[in-house]
Write a structure and sequence with these properties.
Helix 3 (about 60-70) packs parallel to helix 4 (about 95-125) and helix 4 (about 95-125) packs parallel to helix 5. This protein has 2 domains: about 5-175 and about 210-240, Rossmann fold (3-Layer(aba) Sandwich); about 180-210, no CATH class. A 7-stranded parallel sheet has the order 3-2-1-4-5-6-7, with helices on both faces. Helix 1 links the parallel strand 1 (about 5) and strand 2. It has about 260 residues and is of the alpha/beta class. The chain is about 45% helix and about 15% strand. It contains 9 helices and 7 strands, in the order βαβαβαβαβαβαααβα.
């Protein structure tokens, strides 16, 4: 597999794993992020390009695409991974936090995709967005995050419908719990002893009984960008160990003595 890929939020976690996987598959890879150190480290490790950018800002999103094309000459694949969380319900969510979450998770994806689409059309390229099972299932006190991921899911499908006729595919992945720095922080905040004990608790009802590794999500991204997925467009794929298949209303029966 060869080509040019741009991965937003590529400095840590899923984004870094995706960048490394695509580089291993033969892509020339550019990674973006708001902090220089993590993306510089990833770019150095794969011989790629680091672009410090806040993709929720029009000028930065445009520049990220322009610098990628200037360095490599084209753009074949776009991975919309940049994201952030934000806790709160209607009663206590700061409107500023709501706007910040949407600016990163939705507006940023829109802006980068808008800048990239002319180049993707030229090569009949592909887009993969990284949403979350929270796009399909509500989580308590996570109004901004869940809403933004649902919006990202639909944004991706709209791109698929609008640009599929000219050969651009767009698909959305919805991971469950993944071992990332962000998730590690949530496990620590849960306060259940060790971090691994916390992961065990939050995945107790996941059919595979574990969280995924970032590399497993990266593998799904690589497949969606590949020719093996050439007729997959507008799809929403849960990479969640089976958790969205569970009927939560029946869990009590499984716990009966």
């Amino acid at each position: 597999m060869t080509g040019v890929a741009l991965v937003t939020g590529g400095g840590t976690g899923i984004g870094a794993a995706v960048a490394r996987r695509l580089a291993a598959d033969g892509y020339m890879v550019a990674v973006t992020g708001r902090r220089a150190a993590p993306i510089d480290e990833v770019a150095r490790s794969i011989g790629g390009l680091a672009i410090v950018a806040d993709t929720g800002v029009v000028a930065d999103a445009d520049r990220a695409v322009a610098e990628t094309v200037a360095r490599y000459g084209s753009l074949d694949a776009l991975v919309l991974n940049a994201g952030r969380g934000g806790e709160g319900s209607l009663l206590d969510l700061d409107p500023a936090v709501f706007e910040q979450v949407f600016a990163t998770n939705v507006t940023g994806a829109f802006l980068v995709a808008r800048a990239a689409i002319p180049y993707l059309i030229d090569v009949r390229g592909a887009i993969v967005s990284i949403a979350s099972v929270s796009a399909m299932r509500a989580t308590a006190s996570s109004l901004a995050y869940c809403s933004s991921k649902a919006a990202l899911m639909m944004l991706t499908r709209c791109i698929a419908v609008d640009h599929g006729p000219v050969g651009v595919r767009a698909n959305c992945l919805c991971p469950g719990w993944v071992h990332t720095p962000m998730a590690d922080g949530e496990m620590d905040a849960l306060g259940r002893g060790s971090r691994e004990e916390a992961y065990a608790e939050v995945t107790a009802d996941v059919p595979l009984r574990r969280a995924s590794m970032p590399e497993e999500i990266a593998g799904a991204v690589a497949w969606l960008l590949s020719d093996d997925a050439s007729y997959v467009n507008g799809s929403v794929i849960a990479v969640d160990g089976g958790v969205t298949a569970v009927d939560v209303g029946t869990l009590a029966f499984g716990r009966m003595p």
